[in-house]
Amino acid sequence: MSKTAIFNPLSMPTYVMAKPIGSLCNLNCSYCYYLEKENLYKEGGKNLRMSDEILEKYIESYIQAQPVPQVLFTWHGGETLMRDKQFYYKALAYQKKYGRGRQIDNSLQTNGVLLTDDWCKFFKDHNFLIGISLDGPEHCHDVYRKTRNGQGTFKEVMRGVELLQKHGVEFNILAVINDYNVNYPLEVYHFFKEIGAHYIQFSPIVERMHKNDVPSGLKLMGPEEKDEHVIAPWTVDARKFGQFYIDIFNEWVLNDVGQYYVQIFDATLANTVGEQPGSCIYAPTCGHASVMEFNGDLYACDHFVFPEYKLGNIRHQTIFEMMFSEEQLRFGSDKRDKLPSQCLQCEFLNLCNGECPKNRILTTSTGEPGLNWLCAGFKMFYRHTKPYMEFMANELFFKRPPANVMAWARNRK
Questions:
Q1: Which of 260, 296, 409, 411 is the most exposed, having the fewest neighbouring CB atoms within 10 Å of its CB?
Q2: pLDDT tens digits for range 369-408
């Protein structure tokens, strides 16, 4: 029986990324897909702040929706630190009120610019995991991650990283792979190792832009929109994307297995052995990870915050009702069911599963829609890493550490 046949969505944690400040941010990163979402809430002006009422409803409903004893809250932006610590103290109090003895953890994504000693002490005291948005060394980071005055932000972000280190706050890195830093894979990887980042997630950017204005005011296009468009200039080239991962993998597999963790490497190994990959991006189906805006609106996914993907509002429905609605379950299964035949016949289908539907903007050679923009790069990466992944899978089967691959790789080389 296949993995997809036995998958039970009720066995998976329900994951909702909360936006306590909506899309508001202190920066103006060129490639940001979320800044323009304020156009969906023009009636609110700039007051995109989650109320105490919505916060409490969210925390109660989110905890009740979990089928497992551990509950992970993720706070995302915009810029999360534009809410003061009192907001997060209230969140902790509500978590304690409704947690009923469950293990509750918090993670928070930030651009790092607003970090202070006080913030870092708060995070350490309350065991927050912090995600830092950082695209590599200064010449890579400052290309797109800028202030509203057009200045680079690298120095301010690194000051924040140093404060996290000073207070012993656990952090990981979220780096966008774009048309510039994709040319510097080892420089980027070495930099992250130098600053003590042991958990690294690279997020390749693929965006289309409307050629003409649309009523919603959104410049970036949804995955299924058919309007005239151009590819955003910061979009990463598929083959360069594949080579980026290959170059980093070649160093990692010789020296860093078990010490540094790169999301796609972990996910590829998990899919090789038939386990859940830990990310909906590489899973056969999706739909269990959504996003809640400041006013309680729930959307199918963080990358699908468009009116047609709105599931409802926390004021009127529970998170369980919205996340297990027919609409959301169909959204999740469409990831598998709408794959073109070219993907279904691909030798690497079980590794990428078509990757994220938001990136499926190409047509196949026979004219079928739904081919992933990054397909050529994924094939390069999976073909290159296959023998190493198979070796590590074999080590796991015999209950030996996958890190044994390093000696094997050195001998093979």
A1: 411
A2: 999 999 999 999 999 999 999 999 999 999 999 999 999 9
Residues in the chain: 413
Catalytic site residue from 105, 247, 302, 334: 302
- Mean pLDDT, residues 138-152: 97
Can 302 be counted among the known catalytic residues?
A: yes
